[in-house]
Amino acid sequence: MSFIGRKILHWKTKWSPKNTQRVINALPYHQAATFGLLYGYENSAKEEAIQEWIQELKSDKKEVQILCVQSDTQPPQSDFPTLTMADMNVIGKIQAEVLDQFLERSYDYFIHLDFEGNEVINMIVRKATAQCKIGFHSKLNQKHYDLMIGVNKHTGIANFTEQIMSNLKRIK
Fold first, then answer.
1. pTM score of the predicted model
2. N or C, which end of the chain has less CB nearby within 10 Å?
3. Low-confidence residues of the chain, pLDDT below 70?
4. Can you name the residues that pair with 134 across neighbouring β-strands?
5. Which segments within the chain are labelled E, that is strand?
6. Cβ atoms of residues 87 and 73 within 8 Å
7. How far apart are CA 149 and CA 124, in angstroms?
8. Which one, of 66, 68, 67, 64, lies nearest residue 35 by Cα?
9. Residues 38/109, Cβ–Cβ less than 8 Å
10. Half-sphere exposure of residue 31, counting CA atoms within 13 Å on the CB side?
11. Which residue segments constitute the domains of the chain, with CATH numbers given?
12. How large is the C-alpha radius of gyration of the chain?
């Protein structure tokens, strides 16, 4: 995606209004049925940790939809549906069926599994429909998430997903 496209997405996301009176209707974990997972591809180790967590969710009879965002135009390296920068035009408009299918669903929980976002991921988080949006705790993410999980970035994705599960199971 071009520099201009990134800037347009950045400003659209930065200045998009967040409904400050949003009511969070987070279901208890045992009642939640649908999970939307979003992450940026980094390496195969992260991919394996995410696959293990997905298996845990599925063993609890949860329906899981996954979208991987790859930050270059190379063919997808993920086993999951992948959005690449080749799917975006010069002005930042995304033209990908995989994204349309992911965003047309409504989720009980929408979870962003990265420690940092970018313009594309922030736009997807903003457009996603969910009763509760969950992501990594940082000042920059406050307007995007309903629940933010604070962990040390250096402990890895497996610890992050473990903390997410721990917090989800506490919701009554």
1. 0.83
2. C
3. 1-24, 73, 90-92, 140-142
4. 111, 147
5. 34-40, 63-70, 82-84, 106-112, 129-136, 147-149
6. no
7. 19
8. 64
9. no
10. 8
11. 3-13+26-168 (3.40.50)
12. 15
